Each structure stands twice: as C-alpha cells, then as structure tokens.
Amino acid sequence: xxxxxxxxLIGSFLVVASAASFASSDxxxxxxVDKSGSISSSEASVHSVLxxxxxxxxxNADGELSYDEFAKAGLE
Length: 76
Ligand SMILES: [Ca+2]
Ligand SMILES: [Ca+2]
Hints:
By secondary structure, the chain is mainly α. The protein has helices spanning 2-31, 41-44, 48-57, 67-71, and strands at residues 39-40, 64-65.
C-alpha cells in the first residue's frame, strides 16, 4: 500500500514536471518554424519583444538563438 502511494506521488511529480517543460518550450517550438532547433533572426522577427532582445540573447553571436539562449529571455 505504501509502495503504491509512493509510486503514485512520483507519477504525479513526473506529470507536473513534463507539463511545465512543455509549457516553457511551447513558444520556442512555435517560433522555430523550420524546426532547426534554434530561432533565426527572421523567425524571431514575428515576436516584437524577442526581436528587440535578439542581439543581446544571442550570446555566441551565431545569428541563431538556441533554446538556452532563448530561455534567458524569460518569455512565455
Ligand atoms: Ca529555426
Ligand atoms: Ca546563438
């Protein structure tokens, strides 16, 4: 019984964690139109705030925002 309860709790945590990570990558996925795994400046141009922050966020200056660089913007 206690093992069942423990498993149920762990299961609930996993559901919450995956729901949260899905929510935070939702905007990234929708902006990454070509699904290259990064956001180019033209992909960012549809989002006014991201577009303004683009140069600042692009820390390695490769002209693309990786998910890590994008995440620093704190956009939802
Ligand atoms: Ca892309
Ligand atoms: Ca970059």
